[in-house]
Specification:
The chain has helices at 72-88, 96-109, 121-130, 172-175, 197-204, 258-273, 291-299, 346-356, 429-439, and strands at residues 29-39, 44-45, 52-53, 59-60, 117-119, 134-137, 140-146, 160-167, 183-187, 190-191, 211-217, 224-229, 231-234, 238-243, 248-253, 278-282, 306-312, 317-321, 334-339, 361-364, 372-379, 385-394, 410-411, 444-445, 449-450. With 453 residues, the protein is α+β, with helices and mostly antiparallel strands.
Length: 453
């Protein structure tokens, strides 16, 4: 895959979900498409796929270059430093583009927000092209974990480690026995200290056939050197099957894209046409995707009304309503949605909508808790792009679940990964409990399915 290949033909014409962002004057910004998104977990596929909730294109930044009016004194230290370096630095030739990129990166990092970040042009183009589910890398979801167990920390270092959330089935990471919960300490012998998750991800990914060595810490074992040959990864975003003697339709979602939204509609339609009125939507381990896809997917179950709210920096709240024509909106179709600690962002938009609107019962474990919206802005020339938190999203009942997560209606205790039990790693007690709930007697519908005592 060529990271600098042309963008899709409809790049400048894709619809934009309003997020109420403001674009101040800034030197070196182009009037280019701005990409709104609610970034998922910063849980990324190490091959380069960014899972973005709210990714769409078409809006241009309405700003003029230059120091904002009335802010001359505030910006004087920046310009004094810039001119001192470009005019007096004697250590070698000054790359002015790199100087500006460094300044932009420093501004973003000063926010201390793990969901706001700067990417080089190559990283940015890789991210855009890989959102569709195909990329070159090792095929593992990554995040960051602090020593206190909190995820989403930054920068990486002794108190904040790069975490393997899950290797993908059939991926080089899986073949090399990389496991969920592994901590990556170094890449090709180089420490990750001071890097963001995006930067570490950029070091892990690479062209098909190339090797990367990860220094991995797994529990109390000695550190491991895991050698992995990169490959082209095609993520399967939707899986569908029947359970319980074909009485229950099961659909699993691994990402949110235009493709997954189409495929999940087709899978649900097949179940409904097959006469199944009990459905399971599995969002476990799904770190998110396009917010437009989240709206489309939630609309398959919710006929009308609010799916989620966006609250901008000024506090203005704007509703996003369901789209008509959903294939599983009939109240006679009962739904259970599976979540866990790695269900994040777009997954939480869908699960929160289903829970608040009384359309489904949530079964599993508390979700991740990612409730902010980011927006990409591309810089001129080789300047890359930055991602900035510009809004919050809220459930239909206006709950902000950031840092809290969604509490399941039925909690199922599991040890790790996909609901597997410690006694039997092949078992799935969360899924088994969901089937019991759907097929059980004495169930009532009141803001979701609730099993009678």
């Amino acid at each position: 895959m060529d990271p600098l290949a042309p963008l899709p033909p409809d790049f400048a014409n894709r619809p934009v979900l309003p997020v109420g962002s403001r674009h101040g004057n800034a030197r070196h910004f182009l009037r280019v498409p701005v990409l709104p998104l609610a970034v998922a977990v910063v849980a990324l596929l190490t091959g380069g796929a960014l899972f973005l909730s709210g990714y769409s294109m078409g809006r241009q930044a309405a700003s003029e270059p230059g120091t904002p009016v009335g802010r001359d004194e505030a910006f004087r230290p920046f310009w004094d430093t810039y001119h001192a370096i470009t005019e007096r630095y004697a250590g070698g030739e000054v790359d002015r583009e790199a100087l500006v990129q460094g300044a932009v990166k420093g501004m973003i990092e000063s926010l201390g927000d793990p969901y706001s970040s700067y990417l080089s042009l190559t990283q940015y183009r890789d991210s855009l092209q890989s959102i569709g589910g195909q990329f070159e890398g090792i095929g593992a979801q990554v995040s960051s974990r602090a020593v206190d167990g909190a995820e989403g920390c930054t920068p990486l270092g002794l108190s904040c480690r790069l975490l393997i959330v899950a290797p993908m089935d059939g991926s080089p990471a899986k073949a090399a026995d990389l496991r969920a919960g592994d901590l990556v300490l170094a890449i090709d012998g180089a420490s990750l200290d001071g890097l963001t998750v995006d930067e570490a991800r950029g070091r892990i990914r690479g062209p098909k056939g190339s090797l990367v060595t990860l220094t991995v810490r797994r529990g109390s074992q000695d550190d491991l050197a895991v050698r992995i040959t990169r490959d082209v990864i095609q993520q399967e975003e939707v899986g569908s099957r029947v359970l319980a003697d074909e009485r229950v339709g099961y659909v699993r979602l691994n990402g949110f894209s235009d493709r997954s939204a189409r495929e999940i509609r087709e899978a649900l339609a097949a179940h409904v046409e097959g006469g199944r009125t009990r459905l399971i939507l599995d969002l476990r381990g799904d770190p998110g995707g396009y917010v437009t896809a989240a709206r489309d997917i939630a609309s398959q179950f919710i006929a009308s009304g609010v799916i989620f709210w966006e609250q901008d920096a000024a506090g203005t709240q704007t509703p996003t309503d369901a789209l008509p024509g959903g294939v599983a909106t009939d109240p006679a179709i009962k739904v259970v949605c599976l979540i866990d600690g790695d269900s994040a962002s777009a997954s939480e938009i869908v699960a929160g909508a289903l829970q608040d609107r009384g359309r489904a019962l949530l079964v599993g474990q508390r979700s991740f808790g990612k409730g902010t919206v980011q927006q990409w802005q591309e810089l001129t020339g080789e300047g890359g792009a930055f991602r900035l938190t510009v809004a919050r999203w809220l459930t239909p009942d206006k709950r902000w679940i950031h840092g809290i997560g969604l509490e399941p209606d039925v909690t199922v205790a599991v040890s790790s990964g996909s609901g597997a039990s410690a006694a039997d790693p092949t078992a799935d007690p969360t899924l088994e409990r969901a089937v019991e709930v759907l097929l059980g007697e004495g169930l009532v519908f009141d803001r979701g399915w609730h099993a009678a005592a």
